Amino acid sequence: MSLDVAAGFLVCPLCRGTLELDASSAHCPAGHSFDVARQGYLNLLGGPQPKNADTAPMLEARSRVLSGLYGEVVALVVRAASAVGAHVVVDAGAGTGQYVAAVLEALPDAIGIATDVSVAAARRAAGVHPRLASITADTWKGLPVADGAADVVLCVFAPRNPADFARVLAPAGHLVVVTPEPDHLRSLRAAYGLLDLDPDKDIRLEQSLAGVFELVSSDRLTRAVDATAEEVADVIAMGPNAFHSDPATSPEMLEIDVRCRTYRRL
Ligand SMILES: C[S@@+](CC[C@H](N)C(=O)[O-])C[C@H]1O[C@@H](n2cnc3c(N)ncnc32)[C@H](O)[C@@H]1O
Ligand SMILES: [Zn+2]
């Protein structure tokens, strides 16, 4: 079971005691106990998932996009994480787990811990790599990872909790953050009336990390890719704009415009 790879690195979300794992549960010295789901992920949510958690159809669409159109974005994250090297890689808001799985492929001695608030995400991530442990957990409440246990924290298009990312990172550990640039999917957003990106994102990112992390590198990936009608539908369906009924889509040229920043913990 791939959860085993995280033994010794996980802590109780209620008291931060070290979690002991067995085949069907995890428990801390204070007696808090959590279930391992049949699909192989550890459920540390302590309640129902939030109503807006990503759904199984969103995850399916995202999975296809990551193995197709977003291949170079995945490669960008792999380069950033393997440049700093790591034994323990945590992916916060991991979704399908494909980014951290690709990083683990490049780092044969590393293990990964994927966390996400979505049950559908945790199910997928549980089967995506033999050295990846999948856990449902809420980034805002703190990662269920021991202080200083991680060498790299990945946060790819997902919510950030800088103080907690710093807590789980080893001294001089690295945080890899991927965010969309203003032109990311611009014509798709215009054609289908999708939500605009937040123009102040960069400033807020810098402010939230100041004093806790220092920037080590920043790489922008800009591509125009031809997407089929099905790929366009997947890009819409994987995100917060997912429609209740599938829109009629046509082939489009998509702008991929993202930035990958690596920070060192101060
Ligand atoms: C845009 S998706 C990105 C997923 C993945 N990193 C990727 O790029 O394919 C955002 C992810 O963050 C997760 N998420 C949202 N709020 C969260 C929270 N408070 N704690 C943990 N994960 C959260 C969602 O369930 C979703 O899987
Ligand atoms: Zn506990």
Radius of gyration: 18 Å
How would you sum up the global shape? globular
pLDDT under 50 segments (min length 5)?
A: none
Strand proportion, as a percent range, falls in 25-35%
Which architecture would the CATH scheme give at its second level?
A: 3-Layer(aba) Sandwich
The biggest sheet, with number of strands, parallel, antiparallel or mixed sense and barrel status, is:
8 strands, mixed
Helices and strands, in order, run as: EEEEHHEHEHEEHEHHEHE
Highest-level CATH class:
Alpha Beta
The residue fraction in helices comes out at: 25-40%
Question: Ligands in the structure?
Answer: S-adenosylmethionine, zinc ion
Alpha-carbon distance between the two ends:
35 Å
Number of strands: 11
Overall residue-averaged pLDDT value = 93
Helix/strand structural class: alpha/beta
Q: DSSP helix count?
A: 8
Q: What count of structural domains?
A: 1
Structure overview:
This protein is α/β, with parallel strands linked by helices and 266 residues long. It has one domain (40-265): Rossmann fold, CATH 3.40.50.150. The chain is built from eight helices and eleven strands. It has helices spanning 56-67, 71-84, 98-106, 119-126, 162-168, 186-192, 201-209, 229-237, and strands at residues 20-21, 25-27, 33-35, 42-43, 88-92, 111-116, 132-136, 150-156, 169-180, 213-227, 252-265. The strands form two sheets. It has an eight-stranded mixed beta sheet with strand order 4-7-6-5-8-9-11-10, with helices on both faces. Strands 1-2-3 form a three-stranded antiparallel beta sheet, with no helix packed on it. Helix 1 (56-67) crosses helix 8 and helix 2 (71-84) crosses helix 3. The mean pLDDT is 93. The structure holds S-adenosylmethionine and zinc ion (ZN). Residues 53-54, 62, 66, 93-96, 99, 116-118, 121, 138-140, 156-159 line the site of S-adenosylmethionine.
